Structures are given as C-alpha cells and as structure tokens.
Amino acid sequence: MLETARSMLELYEKGVIEFKQRSISTVGKLRISLPAVFLNGPFTRHLANFIKENPDISLSISYSDLREDIIADSIDVAFRIGELPDSSLKARHLFVLPRQLVASKDLLMQHHPIKHPVELGSLPWIGLTMRENIREFRHKNGELAVIKYAPMVCVDNIEAAYVLAKQNIGLAVPPRFLCENDVKLGEMHEVLPDWSLEPLKVYAIWPANISTSSAAYKLINYIYNAMEQHKL
C-alpha cells in the first residue's frame, strides 16, 4: 500500500509539473535562461527584436552562467554553450561561437614572444570554473596541440574573465564578438593568430512536453533564423 501511495504521489507531482510547463508555454508567457556572456552581443539584440515583434508574449529572462534545472525551475527554454549531457530534454543546435586567445599588450611585453602553444604554460591564465583547464589548438597547416594550464585566478563568468585580461591579469579565451573590436583598436592582442580554437556550439534546450505550436518554439526558430542571417 505504501509503495502504491508513493507511486501515485510521484505521478501526481510529475503531472503537475508537466501541466505547469504546458500552461506556461501556451498562454504567451516564457521563462528563459541564457549565458551571461550573451548580454552584450548579437544574441540579445535578436532577442530584443523578438520581444518587439511579439508584444503578446511576456518573457522572464535569467542571464546566468550557472546551469539551472530546467524542470525544477520551470524554465521553458534554456540556451547553453558547449556539449550537452544526455537527458530527456529536447535540444537544437543553433549556431557556433568562435573564440580567440587574447592578452593585453603590457602582459605580453613581460614575457618572451610565444611561438607555439606548448609555451603558453609560462604565462598566467584566467580560468573558468565551469570549464576544464585545457585548450586544444589547431594550426592552419593542420597540426594539433593540446595544453593544460594552472590558472592564476578562476571566475564563473566569461565576460569577467575578459575584463580581467584587459587589466593585465592573464590570458583569456573570450568569444570573438566580445574582443574583436578591442583587437582591431590594438587595445588587446590575439595570441598565436595562426592557431585556432574549436568554436563552441550553442544549443536551445527545452522540456519534451512543450508543444511545437508554443511560444517557446517560436522563439527558438526566431533565434535560429536570426543567427543564420548574421553569423558570428
């Protein structure tokens, strides 16, 4: 009897959550989560256009690099950077995020010129708490180099890592859209420009029970099409 009661309670709780998810997605309200690094970039501009073009949809937006629990936190759509763990959630690849290894001019002047990725260990690094301290570089001639490093400081925000890099703290690997203007102006320098890092994949993730006619799908398709037309 006790086991039966527990099973019924679990089914009831699951049903309540699923009903809540369906309700949120069909009445013109959306709760979405996206990385904080997207705040100052093309993604948020496209999101703003979506809001303007769909005034009947009310959005609650969380900008955070912490990976929230989509079901427990009643999130309709989460946008995530990097490979995804296996789960029952649905996912769609949206676009790739090119990256650059950069440092300030003052920092580079304090060290011998870097000619190969294996030499990068002699420079200070700014690490990210959500990523391993390892980088894989590929030369334009095809050579592959994998390096590990011990960061001088770790942060939980990509944009914060870049700001610290601009203050001569260490090397950083921000998305290209975040640093390309500073590189053009000479305020930051790309390190080893003949070597590249694999772009990171960006996905939309959502609960499997959300209808394809929902506001969530409308947003996902809108962002996909916008990023296709304006590649990073």
From TrEMBL:
Domain of life, source organism: Bacteria
Domain LysR substrate-binding stretches: 27-225
Coiled-coil annotated spans: none
Family the UniProt entry places it in: Belongs to the LysR transcriptional regulatory family.
Span of the signal peptide: none
Pfam family, one: LysR_substrate
Species per Swiss-Prot/TrEMBL record: Klebsiella variicola
GO BP terms, alphabetized: DNA-templated transcription
Protein's recorded name: LysR family transcriptional regulator
GO molecular function terms noted in the UniProt entry: DNA-binding transcription factor activity; sequence-specific DNA binding
Alphabetical list of PANTHER family matching this protein: HTH-TYPE TRANSCRIPTIONAL REGULATOR, TRANSCRIPTIONAL REGULATOR-RELATED
This protein's encoding gene: dmlR_17
